[in-house]
Amino acid sequence: MANVSTLNATGAAIDAVRTEIAAGPRGKKPKKVLSRRNIMIYGILGLAALYYLLPLYVMVVTSLKGMPEVRLGNIFSPPMEITFEPWVKAWAEACTGLNCDGLSRGFWNSVRILVPSVIVSIAVASVSGYALANWRFKGSELFFSVLIIGAFIPYQVMIYPLVIILREIGIYGSLTGLVIVHTIFGMPILTLLFRNYFAGLPEELFKAARIDGAGFWQIYGRIMLPMSLPIFVVAIIIQVTGIWNDFLFGVVFTRPDTYPMTVQLNNIVNSVQGVKEYNVNMAATLLTGAVPLIVYFVSGRLFVRGIAAGAVKG
Amino acid sequence: MSRTVPSATPSRPLPKSSGRPNQLFRNLNSKIALTPMILVAAVVFFGGTIWTVIYSFTNSRLLPRASFVGFDQYERLWASSRWIISIQNLLIYGILSLIFSLVVGFVLAALMDQKIRFESAFRTIFLYPFALSFIVTGLVWQWILNPEFGVQGIVRSLGWTSFTFDPLYNPDIVIYGILIAGLWQGTGLVMCLMLAGLRGIDEDIWKAARVDGIPMWRTYLFVVIPMMRPVFITTLVLIGSGIVKLYDLVVAQTSGGPGNASEVPAKYVYDYMFQAQNLGQGFAASTMMLLTVAIIIIPWAYLEFGGKKRG
C-alpha cells in the first residue's frame, strides 16, 4: 500500500514538474559560477583535454627545434629558436632506403591513391545502396546482411587471395591495384551508410517519379543524388581519412616506389641506419597527420556522424 | 551496425513480386547495379575467406600448394612461443582497453552532459586523435615515451634520478606503453557514442529520479546505464573488432620489440605471409583471427538481428 501511495506521490510530483515546465519559459536560475561541482567538472575535463592535446603540442614543438636543442632534453619546452628546416628536410630530403627525396613522394602517391579510390568507391556504393533501399528484389536483403558480415571479417584473412587475384590480372604492386583494394574494402560500410540514408527519404518522392515514368538511373540522377549531398559529404570524410590513414593495404599491395605516405613515414622514422633526427621525424609525422586533421577540423559535426558509421572499418 | 547511424532504417514493405512472369528480369537495372558488389562479396569476402581457411590445412611455404597436412599448421602455431606471446598481448591489451575506454569514455561523456560551456571545444579536443592514423599515433607516443628525452628524461632532470618509466624498452610492460597510445587514439570515439546515448535518454527520467531524491551517481549506475545497453553493446562490438585488428600501432611504436615482447596476431600473420615465406602458418594464424572475431560477432548478431529480421 505504501508503495502505491509513494508511486502516486511521485507521479503527482512529476506531473507538477511537467505543468510547471509547460507553463512557459522561466529565466535560468542564477548559479554560482565557482561551485564545487563546476570546479570538479571543468577540472577533470581540463586535465583530460591537456592529456589529449599533449602529443600534438609535443609534435609541433619538436618539429620546430634544431637538433642540438632537441638533444638538450626537454620535449615539452617550447623552442628557443624556431626553425623550419626539419619541415623542409622531411618533405624533400628524408631518406627511405636508397631514395632520398623525402615524404613528398609518399604524399603524391597517397593523393594518387586517394582521389580515384574515393570517387570509385563512393560511386559504386551509392548506386548499390540506392538499389538495396529502393529497388529490392528477392534475395537483396540477404545479400545486404552478407555484405555487413563481410565488414567484420579481418582483412588478414582475405589479403592473400586478393594478392593472387591482382597478380593474375597483372596489377599487383601498382597504384591501380591498391585503388581496387580500397574500393572493395570500403564497400560494406559505405553501402550501409547510403542504404540507410536512401531508405529514410520519403517514399512518396520515389513513387511519384516512377508514376511519371522515370527509370532506375533517372530517379537516381535526378531525385536521389541532389537530395543526398550531406550523406555524400559524410562518405567522403570517411573515405578520405580511412584511405589516407591506411597502412596494412599500403604495405601489402604496393612496392617501395609506390608506397603511400603512412608506409613511407614509418620507414623513415623507424629506419635503423643513420643518426636519429627526432625533429625531422616529428615534422614528417605532422605532415602525414595534416590531411586527416584538416578534414577533421573543417568538417566538424559531419565528421562525428561519419566516424560513428565508419568505425566498423577500424 | 545500423544502430550507430542516426537515421535508422525504417522497414519499407517489399514491392509485391508475385504473379508476374520473368522473375529474373524484375528490377533488372537494380541487379545490374549490384553486380560489381555481389561479385566482390562472393569472390573476395567469401571466396577469399574460404580459400584461406582451406589452405591453412596445407603446408604451403613460398607459394600456396594444395598438399594437405591436417592440423599440422595449427599445432605448430600453438607450439610457437611467438604466437603465445601475441595472444597474451592481445588479451592484456584487449581487456584493459575495453575497460578503460568504456569507463573513461563514459565518465567524459557524463561530464560533457552536465550542460557545460565550451562543449564543442572539448569534444573537438577529445576526438581529434581519432582522425589520426595508428602510424602517426604510434610514432608520437614512441617519442613521448623515449627514455632519454621523453617523460622519463624530464622527471630525472628534475632531480628524481632513479625514476624509471621506459615501457617501450622493457619487455615486461611494453604492451602497456602501446595501450597508452591506443587509448589516446580511441577513447574520443567511445565518448562520442556514449554522449549520443546519454542524449537519447528521456529528460523525464532525470526529473523523476531527482524528485525521488536519488543521488546522481546512483541514477547513472542503476537507471541510465541499464537503459543504454544497446549503445554499450554497439561500442563493445566496435572496440572488440578493432582490437583484433591491432597492427599498425605496434609496427609504428615498437615493431614488435623489444625482442618479440609486443608481438600481436595480426603482425604474426603479416610476417609469416609476406616476410618469412611461410604461407601455411600465416593462413592458420589468420584463420584463428577469423575465429576470434566470429566469437565476438555471432552472439551479438544473434542478439541484435536474431528474432526480429532474418536475412
From TrEMBL, chain A:
<feature type="transmembrane region" description="Helical">
    <location>
        <begin position="219"/>
        <end position="244"/>
    </location>
</feature>
<dbReference type="InterPro" id="IPR035906">
    <property type="entry name" value="MetI-like_sf"/>
</dbReference>
<dbReference type="Pfam" id="PF00528">
    <property type="entry name" value="BPD_transp_1"/>
</dbReference>
<keyword id="KW-0813">Transport</keyword>
<dbReference type="InterPro" id="IPR000515">
    <property type="entry name" value="MetI-like"/>
</dbReference>
<dbReference type="GO" id="GO:0055085">
    <property type="term" value="P:transmembrane transport"/>
</dbReference>
<feature type="transmembrane region" description="Helical">
    <location>
        <begin position="142"/>
        <end position="163"/>
    </location>
</feature>
<protein>
    <submittedName>
        <fullName>Glucose/mannose transport system permease protein</fullName>
    </submittedName>
</protein>
<comment type="similarity">
    <text>Belongs to the binding-protein-dependent transport system permease family.</text>
</comment>
<keyword id="KW-0812">Transmembrane</keyword>
<keyword id="KW-1133">Transmembrane helix</keyword>
<feature type="domain" description="ABC transmembrane type-1">
    <location>
        <begin position="107"/>
        <end position="299"/>
    </location>
</feature>
<feature type="transmembrane region" description="Helical">
    <location>
        <begin position="113"/>
        <end position="133"/>
    </location>
</feature>
<feature type="transmembrane region" description="Helical">
    <location>
        <begin position="282"/>
        <end position="304"/>
    </location>
</feature>
<feature type="transmembrane region" description="Helical">
    <location>
        <begin position="39"/>
        <end position="60"/>
    </location>
</feature>
<feature type="transmembrane region" description="Helical">
    <location>
        <begin position="169"/>
        <end position="198"/>
    </location>
</feature>
<dbReference type="GO" id="GO:0005886">
    <property type="term" value="C:plasma membrane"/>
</dbReference>
<keyword id="KW-0472">Membrane</keyword>
Automatic annotation (TrEMBL), chain B:
<protein>
    <submittedName>
        <fullName>Glucose/mannose transport system permease protein</fullName>
    </submittedName>
</protein>
<feature type="transmembrane region" description="Helical">
    <location>
        <begin position="173"/>
        <end position="198"/>
    </location>
</feature>
<feature type="domain" description="ABC transmembrane type-1">
    <location>
        <begin position="87"/>
        <end position="302"/>
    </location>
</feature>
<dbReference type="GO" id="GO:0055085">
    <property type="term" value="P:transmembrane transport"/>
</dbReference>
<feature type="compositionally biased region" description="Polar residues">
    <location>
        <begin position="1"/>
        <end position="10"/>
    </location>
</feature>
<feature type="transmembrane region" description="Helical">
    <location>
        <begin position="32"/>
        <end position="54"/>
    </location>
</feature>
<dbReference type="InterPro" id="IPR000515">
    <property type="entry name" value="MetI-like"/>
</dbReference>
<dbReference type="InterPro" id="IPR051393">
    <property type="entry name" value="ABC_transporter_permease"/>
</dbReference>
<feature type="transmembrane region" description="Helical">
    <location>
        <begin position="124"/>
        <end position="144"/>
    </location>
</feature>
<keyword id="KW-0472">Membrane</keyword>
<feature type="region of interest" description="Disordered">
    <location>
        <begin position="1"/>
        <end position="21"/>
    </location>
</feature>
<feature type="transmembrane region" description="Helical">
    <location>
        <begin position="219"/>
        <end position="244"/>
    </location>
</feature>
<keyword id="KW-0813">Transport</keyword>
<feature type="transmembrane region" description="Helical">
    <location>
        <begin position="283"/>
        <end position="303"/>
    </location>
</feature>
<dbReference type="GO" id="GO:0005886">
    <property type="term" value="C:plasma membrane"/>
</dbReference>
<keyword id="KW-1133">Transmembrane helix</keyword>
<keyword id="KW-1003">Cell membrane</keyword>
<comment type="similarity">
    <text>Belongs to the binding-protein-dependent transport system permease family.</text>
</comment>
<dbReference type="InterPro" id="IPR035906">
    <property type="entry name" value="MetI-like_sf"/>
</dbReference>
<keyword id="KW-0812">Transmembrane</keyword>
<dbReference type="Pfam" id="PF00528">
    <property type="entry name" value="BPD_transp_1"/>
</dbReference>
<feature type="transmembrane region" description="Helical">
    <location>
        <begin position="90"/>
        <end position="112"/>
    </location>
</feature>
